[in-house]
Automatic annotation (TrEMBL):
Gene Ontology MF terms: deoxyribose-phosphate aldolase activity
Domain of life: Bacteria
One Pfam family cited in the UniProt record for this chain: DeoC
Functional pathway: Carbohydrate degradation; 2-deoxy-D-ribose 1-phosphate degradation; D-glyceraldehyde 3-phosphate and acetaldehyde from 2-deoxy-alpha-D-ribose 1-phosphate: step 2/2
Name the UniProt record assigns to this protein: Deoxyribose-phosphate aldolase
Source organism of the structure: Nonomuraea soli
Reactions mediated catalytically: 2-deoxy-D-ribose 5-phosphate = D-glyceraldehyde 3-phosphate + acetaldehyde
Length: 309
């Protein structure tokens, strides 16, 4: 933190004063800018590059109660080899009890293993359970942890509790990177999205993430725009760069390219990398591969051509 942020987390009152002192979000302006950027067209050569970049940013995800070791192995294999000539994805994201399966399958591939934790997706558990949940995933080999904030505490104004939980989970991560899920669909206002983004960054999150994918609306363009503006302003204030991960509802190549345009126009090339921008998705990859094949061969492959995730 810089000197100006050093005392922000000294009390709930100090956090409240800082977060509520952030500039308010012009909702109409944010919606209009996101809509305008969403209409940008990309020509064939640039589109091919954008598709490969999007593939390299995907956190290929399965977070269902019916997940099995076999499904995780199959998904991990696809993550390493999505299609002929296609880049590998950024990470595979699974529940903590299946981390070891992904680690074994992905060993040496360069694909990261991410795990949700902290009583995902509700976050309704004690801090002790949340820290233990995180520590178990890290011990199993997770490179990245996707935690959920306590939205009830945030919405009731208990910012210090949210801050302290993020700090504790970050400590339990050790060398693993921490993505902080805001669950923007439950935050009600764009001002809250901006405040939650700053709170997560001040507490030490390496990434801020829109959603669990279990609540709608999830990764909308305006919400992602606000979070991108937050990381831009945070770097300008502190010198520290934080990543952004929209997740939930990103299903098509068109959706993914809109996100990349948003990144380029809002924060620039510094974030156009899997190190700083991810796309959390379970079905997006197949559409990216279909569009990629169309550009390469001139023919669409049917959805049955690709494995289901």
């Amino acid at each position: 933190m810089t000197t100006s942020l050093a005392d922000v987390a000294s009390s709930n009152a100090a956090l409240r004063a800082f977060l509520h002192g952030l500039p308010g979000v012009d909702r109409v302006g944010a919606d209009q800018r996101a809509a305008m950027l969403g209409t940008r067209s990309i020509k064939t050569t640039a589109k091919a590059q954008a598709i490969d970049l999007a593939i390299s940013m995907v956190d290929l995800t399965t977070l269902e109660g019916a997940d099995t070791p076999g499904k995780v192995r199959a998904m991990s294999t696809k993550a390493m080899h999505p299609g002929e000539g296609a880049p590998r994805v950024a990470a595979v994201c699974v529940y903590p009890d299946l981390v070891h399966v992904a680690v074994e399958t992905l060993k040496g591939s360069g694909v990261k293993v991410a795990s949700v934790s902290t009583a995902f997706p509700s976050g309704r558990s004690s801090l002790e359970v949340k820290v233990s949940d995180t520590a178990l995933a890290v011990a199993a080999g997770a490179d990245e942890i996707d935690m959920v904030i306590d939205r009830g505490a945030f919405l009731s104004g208990d910012y210090l509790k949210v801050y302290e939980e993020i700090v504790a989970v970050k400590a339990a991560c050790g060398d693993a990177h921490l993505k902080v899920i805001l669950e923007t669909g439950e935050l009600a206002t764009y001002d809250n999205v901006r405040r939650a983004s700053w709170l997560a960054m001040i507490a030490g999150g390496d990434f801020i993430k829109t959603s669990t994918g279990k609540v709608q609306p999830a990764a909308t363009l305006p919400v992602t725009l606000i979070m991108l503006e937050a990381v831009r302003d945070f770097r300008a204030t502190t010198g520290t760069q934080i990543g952004v991960k929209p997740a939930g509802g990103i299903r098509t190549t068109k959706d993914a390219i809109k996100m990349l345009v948003l990144v380029n126009e809002t924060v620039g090339d510094d974030w156009l990398s899997p190190d700083w921008f991810r796309l959390g998705a379970s079905t997006l990859l197949n559409d990216l591969l279909m569009q990629r094949q169309k550009l390469t061969t001139g023919r669409y492959a049917g959805p049955d051509y690709f494995t289901l995730d």
